[in-house]
Amino acid sequence: MLRKMILLTTLLLSGIPSSARLNLAQPKTAGLASFYGRREQGKRTASGERFDRHRFTCASRTYPLGTWLMIKYPRMGTFVVVRVTDRGPWVKGRVLDLSEHAATTLGLKGHGVDFVVIQPLLGANICV
Questions:
Q1: Residue 29 carries which DSSP code?
Q2: What single DSSP character describes residue 46?
Q3: Any idea what the Cα angle at residue 28 is, between residues 113 and 38, rounded to 5°?
Q4: Does residue 83 lie in a domain region?
Q5: What is the pTM for the complete model shown?
C-alpha cells in the first residue's frame, strides 16, 4: 500500500512545476465538492482557457486562479492535485467543483457530492 501511495504521489507531482511545493503553513479547508464536465466542455473558464473535463482542474470562489490544490477524499483515502482555472461552484454549501477526470480519479464521481479536504500548495499563481 505504501509503495502504491509513493508511486501515485510521484506521478501526480511530476506534472507540477518544481516551484509548486507543499506548504504546510497554508491552512487546510474542507467542505462539499462536486464535479462538472460534459455541459461545460470547451467553454471558456474564468482564467480564459477552455475547460477540458479530462484534465486535473477545479473551480473555486476563494482560491486565486492558477493555484495548485491537493484535494483529499477521506471516504476513499485518495487524493489528486488540481489547478484552479474557474470560478464556482455557485450552489450554496459547496466549496469546490472538480473536473470530471479529477472526480473520477478521487472516486467522488459515483457519489456526486461529498466531503473533501483542500490543501493549497506553494506557488499559487503559476501560469501553465
A1: E
A2: T
A3: 30
A4: yes
A5: 0.75
The enclosing domain of 59 has a CATH number of 2.40.40.10
Which H or E run includes 83?
strand 78-86
Q: How confident is the model at residue 122 (pLDDT cuts 50, 70, 90)?
A: confident
Q: What letter does residue 12 receive in the DSSP assignment?
A: H
Bridge partners of 71? 80, 118
pLDDT in tens, 64-110: 999 999 999 999 999 999 999 999 998 999 999 999 999 999 999 98
Domain annotation covers residue 80? yes
Res. 8 pLDDT band, cuts 50 70 90: very low
Compute the distance between CA of residue 105 and CA of residue 120 in angstroms, rounded to an integer: 19
Domain range enclosing 59: 27-120
